[in-house]
C-alpha cells in the first residue's frame, strides 16, 4: 500500500512489492492506474517490458558440413560449403547431407528416440 498525501485529499494506491522496491531505489515504473470495482481502491499495474525467454534449440544430429536442430516449432537444417568447391559439387554435397540427415531422423523415429507424432508424413 502506497499512501500519497495531496493538498486536497489522501490517496491510497495498491502497489506490488516489486514496484515499491523499484520506486525506493529511484527507478521510474511505467504502468496503468485503475479503480478496482470490488475493493474500491486505486490499483497500479506495472507494464511487463521484458521479452519472453525463448528455449534453446536442441541438436538432433551433426553431419559433415553442418547440423540438424529442433526448435519449438521447426526443424532447422544447416549446411555450409566453401565456394571454391564449385556449384555442382556444392549441390551434390548439400543433397548428400540432406539424405544423411533424413536417414538419421527416420532411424531415430524407428528407435523411439524422436517422437514420430510430431512429424506428419
The protein's oligomeric status is single chain
Strand order of the largest sheet: 1-2-4-3
Characterize the overall form: elongated
Work out the helix count. 2
Quickly count the domains: 2
Beta strands, count: 7
Q: Indicate the low-confidence ranges by residue numbers.
A: none
Radius of gyration: 28 Å
Helix content: 25-40%
The span between the termini is 58 Å
Mean pLDDT: 84
Name the beta content range.
Answer: 25-35%
Could you please describe the fold and organization of this structure?
- This protein folds into two domains: 2-46, no CATH class; 58-111, no CATH class.
- It is of the alpha+beta class.
- Strand 5 (58-63) and strand 6 (66-70) form a beta hairpin.
- The strands form two sheets. Strands 1-2-4-3 form a four-stranded mixed sheet, with no helix packed on it.
- It contains two helices and seven strands.
- It has helices spanning 17-24, 87-111; strands spanning 2-5, 10-14, 31-35, 42-46, 58-63, 66-70, 75-79.
- It is elongated, with a radius of gyration of 28 Å.
Q: In brief, what are we looking at here?
A:
With 121 residues, the protein is an alpha+beta fold.
